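Entry for S-adenosylmethionine complex. Fields follow.
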Amino acid sequence: MTDGDHVPVLLQEAVDALAVRPDGIYVDATFGRGGHSRAILAALGRAGRLVALDRDPDAASAAQHITDPRFTFRRTWFSQVQAVLAELSISRVDGLLLDLGISSPQIDDPQRGFSFRVDGPLDMRMDPTRGESAAAFLARADVREITEVLRDYGEERLAQSVARAIVAARAIAPIVRTRQLAALVAQTIRTRSRSDRSQDPATRTFQALRIFVNRELEELALTLPALASMLATRGRLAVISFHSLEDRIVKRFFASASKPFGGDPRLDRLPIRTAALPPAPLALVGRAIKPTEREVAANPRARSAVLRIAERTDHPLPAGFAKALGA
Ligand SMILES: C[S@@+](CC[C@H](N)C(=O)[O-])C[C@H]1O[C@@H](n2cnc3c(N)ncnc32)[C@H](O)[C@@H]1O
């Protein structure tokens, strides 16, 4: 266990995925409590370098405990990774890791507002200095907007019923506490037929609001092409995702960037010979890796984790790479 009680998921697998070269430059774009960062530092030699990012202020405090001269931390959103590397005069890296989602300390601290089990302010921002809290969103959005968020990011079948209940309840009192929202959702879903009784009724609503408030899918989709473009030849990109929405983005990006640059879906329908297209900038490395039963038994948070790995080929990046991938 590392400090702050976050057990890193797929730790050895992720470090193996990066195929760490002793003198290489690596980026851990989701530092959390530094479990993966420490393992990367342990694999690096004296000339190696690790740059870590996280937008969470508590992760930034935890990073101060690493005093290793090979280590640099910046508190920022990972979509800013190119600017951070430019500021550090780094133009190419040998490996990048994204371990997506939230960390156990974020969930466990009621003041952060991620937990529907313990009461706290309904915030849910990983970076509390930017953007709108979950409470602020629920105070201003209409039924249609709330329904879309719950349906698109939480795959909540009863999204509209929950959205209506929220709008009706806020006319009486603002929804500002996590337990207040959890109770409201439970009440709404219980009165409709609840099919999945193994899951807390608030699970989907909380997941949806968290993804929305933190722009998690946008960050991921925007950043993947940027990460790939910063890799040196044979550099590795390793991504651990925790739910199907983010895994789908990773899987599609890897699939399109590892094809002769038919990565542009508009070209797929035209009679263009593969040989005439720019060669693929990435190559897939193995199949998706999932945690062993033993890891899941020891750390239930690992349950839904999937690690995907790609390697930068020696072909130049096709013009408009990021644009063609929809970033
Ligand atoms: C699952 S935890 C990472 C845990 C870490 N690998 C460890 O071993 O401790 C994910 C971390 O990524 C951060 N994070 C998520 N999305 C981010 C983004 N777009 N930009 C910066 N940090 C982000 C969260 O604040 C959280 O600390």
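NOTE: The two ends are 36 Å apart (CA to CA).
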